Amino acid sequence: MFDGIKVLVTGCSGFLGPWLCERLVVAGAQVLGADLHFDLDSRIHDIDPEKLEPVFVDVENIEELAAAIEQSDVQFVFHLAAQSLVGEARKKPLETIATNVMGTANVLEVARQLHGTAKALRGVVVASSDKAYGAHDDLPYLESTPLQGRYPYDASKSCADLIAQSYAATYDLPIAIVRCGNLYGAGDLNWSRIVPGTFKHCFAGERPVIRSDGTLVRDYLYVEDAAEAFIIIGRALMAGEVERGEAFNVSGGEHLSVLEIVRKVQDAAGGEAAEPVIKDTAKFEIQKQYLSSQHLTNRLGWKPLVDLPRGLALASDWYRQRCKDLTP
Ligand SMILES: NC(=O)c1ccc[n+]([C@@H]2O[C@H](COP(=O)([O-])OP(=O)(O)OC[C@H]3O[C@@H](n4cnc5c(N)ncnc54)[C@H](O)[C@@H]3O)[C@@H](O)[C@H]2O)c1
After folding, report:
1. pTM here?
2. For ligand 1, is residue 190 a contact (CB within 6 Å)?
3. What is the mean pLDDT of residues 298-310?
4. Residue 184 DSSP SS3
5. Mean per-residue pLDDT, 109-136
6. How far is the CA of 15 from the centre of ligand 1 (A)?
């Protein structure tokens, strides 16, 4: 379905981006990979440059974005670009809103302007998040659970998600929304996240550091399972099998406390497991969240293929090597 299709992936050089781009390349797509930075250690550099053209595009700049889409005859967009760190969002709410809310609105607006023309996009898949739901007592989250993010990152994702739904409904645009749990796997260079941070401490022979009190519960999803979900949803969107603005939860089916995931990362890293340092300084975070992806399974047949021990073992091999070689 993606064979010969020109696909724009925004935020391509982050954690999820390279995994998705790899799959698109295998599916025969010509990928335009847009980002603000191309970190030297990003897995994006492992992709055949004949199949992936990197471009510097700021999604906050609608002219730049529109030019990239129109000049390259982009037919399909996966919009991943975001300020994706909860702690950074709390320190920089305006920048987070500019990137996550306005960046998403800009992508959707370009799609609206092209709609009905010869350059109309065949689909836009927007990366929302489980954080878009905010806190709820009734778990797991279903797609019908109200979006009520309260803290800056969560609220930015609720807004972007609602705006995507609004554009789909109002302008009859082929838009799908993906709400994943916490991703983990090789290639995540965001060291403030619990899985990469813990691997880094383990391989440096240091005690892992937990910013919360260790009890926050999160849904963990292996990154390749997430990339596959994006591909399946994108294909179905192009085939007209997805409703306008339809949302899909993507869950690894495993939810654990921070302390539990740290122990599992330590197991995967091997060696002696040092006692974690519990800082208990993380405030303004949802206490407990996890998702049901039954809707995605029923509608499009997706299921997670990699369980936590296997996923962490794969990640461990990569981090063991990378923690030796990391660009200073
Ligand atoms: N990683 C997770 O656990 C997780 C969970 C649920 C949802 N998500 C969402 O999935 C998407 C991808 O997540 P990720 O973990 O790969 O994030 P990431 O932070 O690793 O990658 C995001 C990329 O977006 C780029 N970017 C930031 N601002 C930009 C701008 N103005 N213009 C262009 N590019 C810009 C960054 O440089 C980065 O390379 C994000 O939208 C995130 O919110 C992530």
Report:
1. 0.98
2. yes
3. 98
4. strand
5. 98
6. 7
**Using a 6 Å cutoff on CB, does residue 182 contact ligand 1?**
yes
pLDDT 10s digits, 14-68: 999 999 999 999 999 999 999 999 999 999 999 999 999 999 999 999 999 999 9
pLDDT of 226 higher than 50: yes
Quick check: 328 pLDDT over 80? no
Q: Distance between CA atoms of 201 and 69, rounded to whole angstroms?
A: 41
Residue to substitute in 9, 13, 15 for testing ligand 1 pocket (most ligand atoms within 8 angstroms of CB):
15
The pLDDT of residue 323 is: 82
Closest Cα to atom 43 of ligand 1: 84
Of 153, 220, 222, 319, catalytic: 153
The response to whether residue 262 sits with its C-beta less than 6 Å from ligand 1 reads no
Contact 147, 101 (CB under 8 A): no
Torsion angle, alpha carbons of 278, 280, 284, 289, to 10 = 40
Ligand 1 in reach of 36 Cβ (< 6 A): yes
Q: What is the pLDDT of residue 273?
A: 85
Q: Which residues contact 134 (CB under 8 A, 6 or more apart)?
A: 146, 147, 148, 149, 150, 154, 155, 158, 286
153 catalytic residue (yes or no):
yes
Is the Cβ atom of 80 under 6 angstroms away from ligand 1? yes
Q: Encode burial over 210-235: b for 16+ CB neighbours within 10 A, e otherwise.
A: bbbebebbbbbbbbbbbbbbbbbbbb
Structural domain boundaries in the chain: 6-183+221-250, 185-217+253-289+306-325
CATH architecture under which domain 185-217+253-289+306-325 falls: Alpha-Beta Complex (3.90)
Residue 149: CB within 6 Å of ligand 1?
A: no
Cα–Cα distance for residue pair 185/319, rounded to 1 Å:
9
- Confidence tier at 78 by pLDDT (50, 70, 90): very high
> How far does the centroid of ligand 1 lie from the alpha carbon of residue 10, in Å?
9
Residue 282: pLDDT above 90? no
Superfamily per CATH, domain 6-183+221-250 = NAD(P)-binding Rossmann-like Domain (3.40.50.720)
Pocket test for ligand 1, best of 80, 154, 223, 255 (most atoms within 8 A of CB): 80
